[in-house]
Design the sequence.
């Protein structure tokens, strides 16, 4: 009840927990705390189900992704001279990235997960991670003027 706050959901969670425990009983080590093991299974099951539900209910509008490639005055926040320079430099640095690096980086920046990016771009997840890492590294180099202590 502490996790779900609903009696029916709590019953379902207990049933799912016990089913998983029975299926994985060989992984339980004799002499350890059974209650803690079951609670860990229950908590992880709850978290996984919660993540599935929230992911299913949250739709990412892909048009939001494309606005970053055609950034114009409508999308720039004007906070004064310094921020104008910073935003201009950041946009220039991002525009200076190769499309192979810019596309996954921008998708990750607006909230896509690595797996979602890999599926949309039809490339391996390792390639996505590598391209985002390289994009960050190149952006860090291009924007080193703004690094603390410089």
Sequence:
């Amino acid at each position: 009840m502490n996790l779900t706050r609903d009696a029916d959901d709590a019953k379902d969670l207990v049933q799912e927990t016990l089913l998983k425990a029975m299926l994985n009983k060989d992984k339980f080590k004799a002499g350890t705390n059974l209650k803690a093991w079951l609670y860990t299974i229950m908590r992880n099951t709850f978290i996984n189900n919660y993540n599935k539900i929230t992911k299913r209910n949250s739709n990412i509008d892909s048009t939001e992704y494309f606005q970053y490639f055609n950034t114009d005055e409508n999308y720039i926040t004007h906070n004064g001279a310094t921020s104008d320079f910073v935003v201009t430099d950041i946009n220039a640095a991002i525009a200076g990235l190769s499309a192979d690096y810019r596309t996954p980086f921008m998708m990750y920046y607006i909230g896509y997960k690595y797996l979602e990016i890999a599926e949309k771009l039809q490339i391996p997840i390792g390639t996505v991670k590598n391209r985002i890492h390289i994009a960050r590294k190149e952006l860090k180099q291009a924007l080193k003027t703004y690094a603390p202590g410089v």
Summary: The helical segments are 7-23, 34-57, 62-66, 81-95, 99-109, 114-121, 125-142. The CA atoms of residues 18 and 75 lie 51 Å apart. Residues 34-57 form the longest helix (24 residues).
